[in-house]
Write a structure and sequence with these properties.
Layout (H helix, E strand, L loop, with lengths): L30 E3 L10 E2 L13 E5 L13 E6 L5 E5 L4 E5 L5 E6 L11 E6 L5 E5 L3 E8 L2 E9 L6 E5 L2 E5 L9 E4 L5 E5 L8 H7 L2 E6 L4 E6 L4 E6 L4 E6 L7 E4 L5 E4 L4 E10 L3 E11 L7 E11 L5 E5 L4 E6 L2 E6 L5 E6 L3 H9 L4
Parallel strand pairs: 2-19
Antiparallel strand pairs: 1-20, 3-28, 4-5, 5-6, 6-7, 8-9, 9-10, 10-11, 12-13, 13-14, 14-15, 16-17, 17-18, 18-19, 20-21, 22-23, 23-24, 24-25, 26-27, 27-28
């Protein structure tokens, strides 16, 4: 958030894409992914045993309604950020707008709308608050927009064109990091200044002769952790998480334990088939926390009972040290966490209607206690 990461989150919806009609193409067998060249050697494997401590405490507030009040009727909550005063900026990708609420949940104003003109969005994906409290939005339409806060909304200061579609964003001081695949399969994380210049890029794209395969398997999200100056990269469809320095140096690679990857094939013509199966899992979000930690969540579809069609959604949550990549599973039943607001956690649900819930989060000292249990 971007949660994370202020925090940012991409809310992931399961998408089943079949670009080829069979798993065997003309002139050869299908290739199953990930291939060995794309599997890191000796990754850190997190502990899957839940620590048993309560991570969220009191539920303090909620924002979201079915019909009334209209300012709380959301279409699809894509990302959330909070500023130094605790105000929440809710990015709605269905209505292409931002709604601003006080820390108590009072509606303060709105900005945006569908379009490509000033103050408008085409496909908003991520939102961040800068140190001067201005607002930055990454739009899949190939641009980032810089907005100034007003008493009842936001005004556009600048619109910066990009040569790729950003799918995630985070900020370290005045350095903006954008995740976005390019057609030449160049590195997928791009450091940019507020003038729109890309200063350097890092983080390898998924390696494949097929551009479609590389694009699909390079998707994911990023989170910036200020205390360690680390960028944490989470893959959407593969069980790997990477930590980079703010200069782009790879610091560590971790593997999510028990990750139920969907089946991924490539036919001889470069088409791709994704099959979720009865149970599957996606990398959902990475949200930075105080103390140099990051919260990583995955969304798992789990078979319920004997029926192969009845499924329940399980959110697996891991607490990770951004400095060295060590991690511990802390829960399989937390809500989706999209942002932090001071010491509070902001959760989101999309069903039965989009709603934010604010929870009292754990003390920073509790994070260390949870991670200490990894080696016990």
């Amino acid at each position: 958030m971007p949660q994370p990461s202020p925090s940012r989150l991409r809310i992931v919806q399961t998408l089943l894409l079949v670009a080829s009609s069979s798993c065997t193409g003309e002139g050869g067998q299908a290739t199953r992914h990930p291939t060995t060249t794309n599997v890191p050697s000796s990754p850190i494997v997190w502990s899957e045993a839940e620590h048993g401590r309560d991570f969220l405490h009191e539920r303090t507030n909620s924002i979201g309604a079915v019909t009334q009040p209209v300012e709380e009727v959301f279409g699809l909550i894509r990302d959330v950020a909070s500023d130094s005063a605790g105000r929440l900026y809710v990015l709605d990708s269905r209505f292409n707008e931002i709604r601003v609420f006080s820390s108590e949940g009072t509606f303060l104003g709105t900005a945006g709308g569908p379009g490509s003109g000033p103050g408008e969005f085409q496909h908003p994906e991520a939102i961040e608050i800068l140190e001067d409290q201005s607002v930055l939005v990454a739009d899949r339409g190939g641009r980032i927009k810089l907005l100034n806060p007003l008493s009842r909304g936001l005004s556009e200061r600048a619109s910066i064109l990009l040569d790729f579609a950003p799918e995630s964003m985070c900020v370290l001081e005045d350095q903006v990091f954008l995740r976005g695949w390019t057609a030449d399969q160049a590195p997928i994380i791009h450091a940019a200044d507020l003038e729109g210049s890309i200063t350097f890029s890092f983080g390898a794209a998924y390696e494949s002769l097929s551009a479609l395969v590389s694009w699909r398997l390079s998707s994911g999200s990023i989170a910036c952790v200020p205390e360690t100056n680390t960028i944490v990269e989470l893959s959407l469809r593969l069980p790997f998480v990477r930590g980079y320095s703010d200069k782009g140096e790879l610091l560590w690679v971790a593997e999510i334990p028990g990750f139920r990857q969907m089946e991924i094939w490539e036919d001889a013509r470069g088409g791709i088939g994704l099959r979720a199966g009865v149970e599957h899992e996606l990398g959902l979000s990475a949200v930075p926390l105080r103390g140099g930690r990051v919260l990583v969540q995955t969304q798992r579809q789990v078979q319920e009972g004997e029926s192969r069609t009845a499924r329940v959604t399980e959110i697996r949550t891991f607490l990770v040290d951004a400095a060295d990549g060590s991690g511990q599973m802390i829960s399989s039943n937390l809500p989706i966490i999209v942002a932090t607001a001071g010491s509070n956690m902001v959760g989101v649900q999309q069903v039965p209607f989009p709603q934010l819930t604010i929870w009292e989060g754990p003390a920073e000292s509790d994070h260390g206690l949870m991670l200490e249990e990894v080696g016990r």
